[in-house]
Write a structure and sequence with these properties.
Blueprint lengths: L10 H10 L4 H19 L2 E4 L1 H16 L11 E5 L26 H8 L3 E6 L33 H8 L5 E6 L5 H7 L2 E4 L20 E6 L2 H11 L8 H12 L8 E4 L10 H16 L3 E4 L7 H21 L1 H6 L2 H11 L3 H24 L2 E5 L15 E2 L2 E2 L10 H6 L3 E8 L5 E8 L4 H14 L10
């Protein structure tokens, strides 16, 4: 591939080129920063840049590669970090006026691992306010556009992350997923996103959680091999996050199962909830490709009762906001009015309701274990809708039916509540040119199973050669 198009190179290609000496991290960083100059003004994906620091770090990385002493496979790889994750020396605004300008003193644990491994953090990417909504807009930085249709949203809350990767500002991003915030944006932007098993990437030095322990962080890239590369580089248990030890045990128990035919449950619809016909057709075609790869795919309803979570999901966020504003009244003072209203609703939820939610979470995780004792994987759409206008929080209608705030997001939240890994993969494009994607869900610890299947699917149905016309 031409050095003139170095911003299009994958992370794995860059790492191989550094090793051979055909290019170096300085050239890669310069290419990504120049690409950012060209396209970010029209997308508003990256809201904080580190140009001078990145070039200094790239020169240090280039010297390490020349000496044959890279710090990790991520050494010299340009990445971005979502603006809901702490990065020492820089603000984490969370899309909130109350946090704008406040500098952090610590890195989130995975960010610290990436920086210690020599990754070049180009900057931070835009989020929705409090990272609570399925689009990307906030009162600090404004809306982020979808590279394939800049007037439309890339989804959220990791919209800035997927927009940056899809447009070539950097091959990899660290995102966050509390109810689908990696997988749905990856679907809308035509990139790959992994929501890891709970604590596969351990967490320390974080913003307050608004969604219990549902929020995990994970990699976003243009290819499965890049996502796998970052996932492996930053995974591993840490004493500060005891559940990460369970994740490591589960991963060892699951193994990779590379090349083995798997029993796959295809779930097209959840009850009577509407699904865009173009999404349904694209995902069904992708499922046919999985069958061609030798997997046993059967279509049926999801054998889990999600009615409780469909009803309780809004309350979880409301309770989380009420707790946040109780501890940090300065954030409430500068929050958008809709979040003040949600927090007030959270204060009205009785304490026994939260206890009931926790009991239902435990029950769902037990039911999910039984589900994945029968099936290896579950496939379903990533999102029920195609992208909608960038400043609109959610689509009001899907396939002619009126829907509420979670209508487009019905497929993803249960995976977070269950603590399971899920991989979002592109499946094609709509008639209007917007990407469509599916998610593949595995049992707890089955992250490598997902990535191995993703690699095979990617080889059979490649997409990384497609670029938005910006």
């Amino acid at each position: 591939m031409s050095l003139d198009l170095l911003w299009q190179w994958s992370a794995t290609e860059l790492s191989e080129a550094y090793r051979s000496g055909s290019t170096d991290p300085v050239q890669a960083a310069q290419a990504c920063l120049q690409r950012m100059d060209a396209v970010n003004p029209g997308l508003n994906a990256v809201i904080l840049r580190r140009d001078e620091q990145v070039l200094h770090e790239a020169r240090e990385s280039a010297q390490r590669w020349r000496l044959g002493q890279p710090l990790s496979v991520l050494d010299g790889i340009p990445i971005t970090v979502k603006d809901s994750l702490f990065m020492a020396g820089y603000p984490t605004t969370w899309g909130c006026l109350g946090l704008a300008g406040q500098t952090n003193v610590r890195d989130e644990l995975a960010v610290a691992r990436a920086r210690a491994g020599g990754a070049l953090v180009l900057g931070k990417t835009n989020v929705s306010e409090f990272a609570l909504e399925g689009y990307t807009d906030n009162p600090v930085f404004g809306p982020t556009g979808n590279p394939w249709a800049p007037a439309l949203t890339p989804g959220g809350s990791s919209g800035g992350a997927v927009s940056a990767v899809a447009s070539g500002m950097g091959p990899l991003a660290i995102g966050q997923d509390g109810g689908g915030s990696i997988r749905r944006p990856a679907c809308h932007a035509g990139v790959v996103g992994l929501k890891p098993s709970l604590s596969a990437w351990p967490r320390e030095h974080t913003l307050p959680s608004l969604l219990l322990d549902f929020e995990v962080i994970g990699p976003i890239g243009r290819t499965v091999s890049d996502v796998q590369m970052m996932f492996r580089a930053l995974r591993g248990p840490a004493d500060v996050d005891r559940s990460s030890m369970a994740a490591a045990w589960a991963a060892q128990r699951c193994g990779e199962q590379a090349g083995k035919p798997m029993k796959v449950l295809y779930v097209e619809r959840l009850g009577a909830a509407p699904l865009d016909p173009e999404v349904a057709a694209s995902v069904r075609q992708a499922v046919t490709q999985l069958q061609r790869l030798g997997h046993n795919v059967q279509e049926a309803e999801l054998p889990l009762d999600l009615a409780f979570f469909n009803q309780a999901w809004p309350q979880i966020g409301q309770i989380g906001l009420a707790h946040l504003f109780e501890r940090h009244p300065e954030l409430q003072a500068q929050a958008s009015d809709k979040f003040k209203v949600l927090a007030e609703m959270g204060r009205a939820v009785p304490a026994q309701r939260l206890w009931e939610i926790l009991e239902q979470v435990r029950a769902l995780r037990q039911q999910s274990a039984r589900l994945f004792s029968e099936w290896d994987l579950v496939v379903m759409p990533s999102a029920a809708a195609l992208p909608w206008p960038a400043t609109q929080p959610y689509p009001s209608h899907i396939d002619g039916q009126e829907v509420g705030p979670r209508g487009h997001a019905i497929y993803t939240g249960w995976v977070n509540a269950a603590g399971l890994p899920a991989l979002a993969l592109p499946t094609g494009f709509s008639a209007s040119g917007c990407p469509i994607g599916m998610q593949i869900v595995a049992g707890y610890g089955g992250d490598e199973q997902l990535l191995q299947l993703g690699l095979a699917y990617e080889q059979a149905a490649p997409w990384a050669q497609h670029w938005p016309n910006l």
